[in-house]
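Hey,

The postdoc asked me to send both predictions to you directly instead of through the lab channel. I've kept everything plain text so nothing gets mangled by the mail client. Protein one:
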Amino acid sequence: MDYSEKYNQALIVQTNKTAVELQEARKLVIDATQGFPGQTSVQAHIGIRMIGELDLKAFSNVCRQKFPKDDAEVESVKLCSKWQNEISNPNWHPFVVSTVNRKQSEVIREDDKKLQELKEEYGEEAYAAVTTALTELNEHNSSGSRVPFPELWNHKEGRIANIKEIVQHVIQLSKAIK
């Protein structure tokens, strides 16, 4: 029993070490590829995406309908900035724990006052942009921080890129530079 416990502990330590190494490698690739030409081209389905960053286009669309043409862009930037700050506020927690198939996860509370006011005043598109950013940060950021962060993203499949895809992408970028 003692041997099994020690072996299990060694596996946990090794798994944690490997996870840290992978995160460091992902960060290195993100930092290195930000300056590569063509890394965000249409052909590249792997690129850098800011997880948890609001889509300004959603707010622009809403503000073009609510404000005069001259004021719409300024108002959309103000509104987007306001909601990005709300998302980053650690005192606001618009989630509730839900159990689905015996698995617990946090989902957006339907009755959250701030989100309901946003939806009523600015519509479904702005509401969806905020809830999407909140959900992404909650799912992909293990530290609990709600500050947007860069991640290597598979745009074709709408998910975080896996290590194999990242390596293939870096090889393509290096060949393109040569």
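Protein two:
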Amino acid sequence: MQTGPVDNEIINKVLQGEQALYAQLVKRYQNYVFTIVLRYTTNREDAEEIAQDVFVKAYRSLADFRGESKFSTWLYTIVTTTCITFLRKKKVPVHSLDTEQVFELADNQNSAFRANQVEQKSKIQVINEALRLLSIDDARIITLFYQAEQSLEEIGRILGVDPNTAKVKLHRARVRLKEKMEKHFTEEVKDMVG
């Protein structure tokens, strides 16, 4: 899965003056960071700006990384705080997915999209669209476990809960994701299992 020097080796060398090696960490984690950022904003330009900002902040704070968890766990914290700060500055409205109006909007957008694109969607696209219909907390824990490949212990550290609580939250988020997929992406789900 991971080739070349491990993250901690690269970090130690960067801190000892070999700053150019930081590019290896950026390359290794750019998709990870971008995927998480897209959970907060669907605007690609904003996402690119935020991702770049994340790597600048991580570089400046690299001496604070103690190696008690994976680098990706530490980086995730920087990603989420940077995203939240960015959205607050932009004053982007945050909608509750509990309101009927948001569901109607999602239904209308998705039904038109499905009519034209059913055959072209990949499993990943469908899952990502379904994740956008979840609460930020549910989308975050699913992203951490499946896309960022964090353990329940690491997810617990990130969320400030014990691993068993993280496991329960993950289970509930998976149930809600399944419900969203069955409701909004019925045809795509049939294609995936069929």
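Summary for protein two, as requested: The chain has ten helices and no strands.

Thanks,
C.
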